[in-house]
From TrEMBL, chain A:
InterPro entries per the UniProt record, alphabetical: AUX/IAA_dom, AUX_IAA, PB1-like
Organism expressing this protein natively: Ensete ventricosum (Abyssinian banana)
Location of the protein in the cell: Nucleus
Start and end residues of each PB1 domain: 85-174
Keywords, alphabetical: Auxin signaling pathway, Nucleus, Repressor, Transcription, Transcription regulation
Record-stated family: Belongs to the Aux/IAA family.
Pfam families listed in its UniProt record: AUX_IAA
Single GO BP term: auxin-activated signaling pathway
Protein name: Auxin-responsive protein
UniProtKB/TrEMBL annotation, chain B:
Organism: Ensete ventricosum
First and last residue of the signal peptide: none
Superkingdom as given in the UniProt entry: Eukaryota
Subunit structure and binding partners: Part of a SCF (SKP1-cullin-F-box) protein ligase complex. May interact with auxin and auxin-responsive proteins.
Protein name, per record: F-box domain-containing protein
Length: 175, 580
């Protein structure tokens, strides 16, 4: 997956944006907890199996009580073996025909940006960059479950996956 | 007995293995205190904040082995914030100043940095053994320091640590002159490790008996390593995936066949089912088998493998083995002493992997069983009663029903009677974890019968303060109590505050305890270290109720026999932490 961008202002620099770091810290941060808990929401959970009055496992944090190494081993296996896909539509402003992209085949914002850059041949800017966006640059936005259009990259990747409905690449000077 | 030469006392005291016994000896009189302190080689500190490192080092100048534990147990489940503490630095610094003869350091749930590892590697010329369990704060750079400077290192054992990956060079830092390794475990490392450097290291360490690889070491390397180290007793495989029935695979079978001393197997990262067959030749010799990181292997293959392991004493496995698989274990592994069955379904998809049936089968087939950790979908009182009857020798019994507050599915009753049967029958029970639907009654039973109980873990159980009070009043030997999500409040917390001085620690989170209650406790017991961990990002210090973000941690602080300066906290000012 060639990831050299075409222009010098390739702005997706994972070191400048904490949410884009796929392994932001090896230490157990709250973000790691959050991602674990939210992954529960993405899983195959069939909550109907549990009685309505009982505590659902999905709502509980830090449950079942297993060590992080085991938890990450099991989650990796699920990701790999289920080959679940999550295709979303991607439109670029000015182009009437959109594309479709499988978000589950990416493990973070870095990977997503690289693919989009390749698909649409444009520079996509990270929202935290303090540089003035060049004229031709774009930003990546998404429509969330509530119907609002938001900038991609602000929330942890796993949270993003639970709320994104579709993507749109818009001109930077419009945001 | 009043006049006994010190040499004789020392000789006798040397036979005492347990720290508890030696501690008791040291309190008899000043002379015996002196004998113990000068002859104690192995020092155990169960809670790093109970005593200052300098005190330990001054008291035991001939110390050769130091074990220190940091964070509370629930830190394993992410309930303790990263910056809580448990820093190794003051311990290593104190030991470097006062005990340069230190040979072994064992740390559990502590934060150790690369700088600490560097200091360690240069401060102890006879250093032989470093064991880090569930620690964090360091990277492979720190490991490079240990490899480079610890001449004569015998053991580097990294168990389930969070290690930042700064590259694979660290292993190459073991000099060519290093031939002393007996035990090397880097299974928890996430990054690449230089396989050829490892092969050379193994080749020059003829005493190597225990080797645990991480997932980055391919099977081809494993073949070469086993060829060089056929005397291995304990092996953790690296990646255990082979693409097809290739040459590599056949060589692997031969390699294992030659390892006549192999008794313990673990690893199997990414293991695919048919690769397991390579292990069949040595199954008959295995006493320890850990398959808990091999989620791709399903019941049929697990069952087949275990069916060959009739000398097995310790089995750790995922619940995909199923009840049927456990029946096979029960009929094969008559020497089984410890069983751990971990959940493989973390998403709550309701896959019913193991139930009470598997446990009952094990209990009737494995009479020597004394240690259990069992994650299951459901449990019944009848099953627990049967298990209690079949296995009265349990010292550790931990049951985790995956759905909290789940009753006995057959009778719809709480599981009070079942656990009651366990504590009544198992007179030597030292550690217990309860789960499922439980009322205060179960705690009445625990208080009444669990006389030897030292550690109790409770989650989503009980009806009222009475539950906690039964436990505190009853269990004379209780040392560690950890409670989450139970309706125990200030009345329970404050009922018998003197009890806490006999315990190592108490943890309460998401219970009904208030800030006022904790302050009251701290005021009544100034020698207790009472601490609230507040994970709110803002201002909630004036809140009277501890919300879900607050946790109470309490531990005893020791004073020495001669009542000298008490330990006062000089921790760095960790944010969001309130010491009362």
């Amino acid at each position: 997956m060639g990831d050299q961008s075409n222009s010098p202002s390739s702005s997706i620099d994972s070191s400048s944006h904490p949410a884009l770091c796929s392994t932001s810290s090896s230490f157990q941060t709250r973000r790691d907890l959050l991602s674990t808990d939210l992954k529960l929401g993405l899983g195959l959970s069939t909550s109907a199996l549990h009685g309505s009055s009982s505590k659902q496992r999905e709502q509980l944090s830090h449950w079942p009580p297993i060590k992080p190494l085991l938890r990450s081993t099991l989650e990796e296996k699920v990701h790999r073996s289920h080959s679940k896909t999550f295709f979303v539509k991607v439109y670029m402003e000015g182009l009437p025909i959109g594309r479709k992209l499988d978000l589950f085949s990416h493990n973070g914002y870095d990977s997503l940006m690289r693919t989009l850059r390749r698909m649409f041949r444009t520079t996509i800017i990270c929202p935290d960059t303090s540089r003035v966006p060049p004229e031709k640059a774009h930003v990546l936005t998404y429509e969330d479950k509530e119907g609002d259009w938001m900038m991609v990259g602000d929330v942890p990747w796993e949270l993003f996956l639970t709320t994104v409905k579709r993507l749109k690449i818009t001109r930077a000077d419009k945001c | 007995m009043t006049y006994f030469p010190e040499e004789v006392v020392e000789h006798i005291v040397d036979f005492l293995g347990s720290h508890g016994d030696r501690n008791a000896v040291s309190t008899v009189c000043k002379a015996w205190y002196q004998v113990d302190r000068l002859s104690r080689r192995s020092v155990f500190v169960g809670n790093c904040y109970a005593i200052r490192p300098e005190r330990v080092v001054t008291r035991f100048p001939e110390m050769k082995s130091l074990t220190v534990k940091g964070k509370p147990h629930f830190a394993d489940f992410n309930l303790v914030p990263y910056d809580w503490g448990g820093f190794a630095q003051p311990w290593i610094e104190a030991a470097a100043r006062g005990c340069p003869g230190l040979e072994e350091l064992r740390l559990k749930r502590m934060v150790i940095t690369d700088d600490d590892l560097e200091l360690l590697s240069c401060s102890f010329p006879n250093f032989k053994s470093l064991v880090l369990v569930s620690c964090e704060g360091f990277s492979t750079d720190g490991l490079a320091e240990i490899a480079t400077y610890c001449r004569g290192l015998r053991e580097l054992d990294l168990q389930e640590n969070e290690v930042e990956d700064h590259g694979h060079q660290w292993l190459s830092c073991f000099p060519d002159s290093c031939t002393s390794l007996v035990s090397l475990n880097f299974a928890c490392l996430k990054g690449e490790v230089n396989a050829s450097a490892l092969e050379r290291l193994v080749a020059r360490c003829p005493n190597l008996r225990s080797l645990k690889l991480n997932h980055s070491i391919p099977v081809e390397s494993l073949n070469k390593i086993l060829a060089r180290a056929p005397h291995l007793v304990d092996l953790g495989t690296g990646s255990f995936t082979i693409d097809n029935r290739s040459e590599t695979y056949h060589r692997l079978i031969n390699s294992f066949f030659r390892c006549k001393s192999l008794r313990s197997l673990s690893g199997f990262w990414d293991a695919s089912p048919f690769c397991l067959q390579a292990v069949y030749p040595i199954c008959a010799n295995l006493t320890v088998l850990n398959l808990s990181y091999a989620p791709a292997i399903q019941s049929a293959d697990l069952t087949k493998l275990v069916g060959f392991c009739f000398k097995l004493q310790k089995l750790w496995v995922l619940d995909c083995i199923g009840d049927k698989g456990l029946v096979v274990v029960a009929s094969t592994c008559k020497e089984l002493q410890e069983l751990r069955v971990f959940p493989s379904d973390v998403y709550g998809a309701g896959i019913t992997a193991v139930t009470e049936e598997g446990l009952v089968a094990i209990s009737s087939g494995c009479p020597k069983l004394n240690s259990l950790l069992y994650f299951c979908y459901q449990m019944t009182n009848a099953a627990l009663t049967t298990v209690a009857k079949n296995c009265p020798h349990f010292t550790r019994f931990r049951l985790c029903i995956l759905e909290p507050e789940k009753p006995d599915p057959v009778t719809n009753q709480p599981l009070d009677e079942g656990f009651g049967a366990i504590v009544r029958s198992c007179k030597n029970l030292r550690r217990l974890s309860v789960s499922g639907l439980l009322t205060d009654q179960v705690f009445l039973y625990i208080g009444m019968y669990a006389e030897r109980l030292e550690m109790l873990s409770i989650a989503f159980a009980g009806d009222s303060d009475k539950g906690m009070v039964y436990v505190l009043n009853g269990c004379k030997n209780l040392r560690k109590l950890e409670i989450r999500d139970c309706p125990f409040g200030d009345a329970a917390l404050l009922k018998d505050v003197a009890k806490y001085e006999t315990m190592r620690s108490l943890w309460m989170s998401s219970c009904d305890v208030t800030l006022g209650g904790c302050k009251s406790l701290a005021a009544k017991m100034p020698r207790l270290n009472v601490e609230i961990i507040n994970e709110n990002d803002g201002t909630s210090e004036s809140k009277e109720n501890l919300s879900d973000q607050h946790k109470l941690v309490l531990c005893q602080q020791f004073t020495s026999v001669s009542n000298d300066i008490m330990f006062t906290s000089n921790d760095p000012d960790v944010c969001r932490r309130v010491r009362l």
